[in-house]
Amino acid sequence: MAKLVNLTPHEINIISEEGIELRLPPSGEVARATSSTEEVGEVNGIKVVKSTFGSVTGLPEPVEDTIYIVSMLVLQALKGARTDVVGPDTGPESAVRDADGKIIGVKRFQRL
C-alpha cells in the first residue's frame, strides 16, 4: 500500500457510499505552480487575462511507494511528467457536496 502525502493546504476526504473512508490532513508542505498573467482583452469594461503556469515548487523528489496529492493547478503545470502525483477529482462524478454546495470530499483521485 502506498504512502499518501497531502501537499495541499486543505484536508482531503475520500468518501465512499458508506461515508468518509480516509481523511488526509495537510502535510505542512505545499506544492505550488508559479504563474504569470497577460492582459488579453476586456468584457464589458472588465479586464481579461491569460494565465500561464510555469515551474512547480514544493514537490519532493519521487520516493518509492509514495504518492503525492497536489492541486489541479500543480497537476496542470506538471503536464503528466510525474506518475507519483495525483489530485483530488472535483468533477461532478466524484465531488461530494454538503447541503450548501461546498465540497466536503471526493470519491477518487485524478491524473492528467
Characterization of the model:
This protein is mostly beta strands. The protein has one domain. The protein contains 1 helix and 10 strands; from the N terminus they run ββββββαββββ. The mean pLDDT is 95. Strand 4 and strand 5 (46-57) form a beta hairpin.
Compile the SSE list and pairings.
Blueprint: E1 3-6, E2 12-16, E3 19-24, E4 32-43, E5 46-57, E6 66-69, H1 72-78, E7 85-88, E8 95-97, E9 103-106, E10 109-110
Parallel strand pairs: 1-6, 6-7
Antiparallel strand pairs: 2-3, 4-5, 7-10, 8-9
Radius of gyration: 16 Å
Q: What structural class results from the helix and strand content? A: mainly beta
The proportion of strand residues reads over 45%
Classify the oligomer: single chain
The biggest beta sheet, please? 4 strands, mixed
| Shape estimate | globular
Separation of the first and last Cα atoms: 22 Å
Tally the beta strands.
10
Low-confidence stretches: none
Query: SSE order in H/E notation?
Result: EEEEEEHEEEE
Tell me, rounded to a whole number, the average pLDDT: 95
Q: How helical, in percent, are the residues?
A: under 10%
Query: If helices are DSSP runs of H or I spanning 4 or more residues, what is the number of helices?
Result: 1
Sequence of strands across the biggest β-sheet: 1-6-7-10
Q: What is the total domain count? A: 1
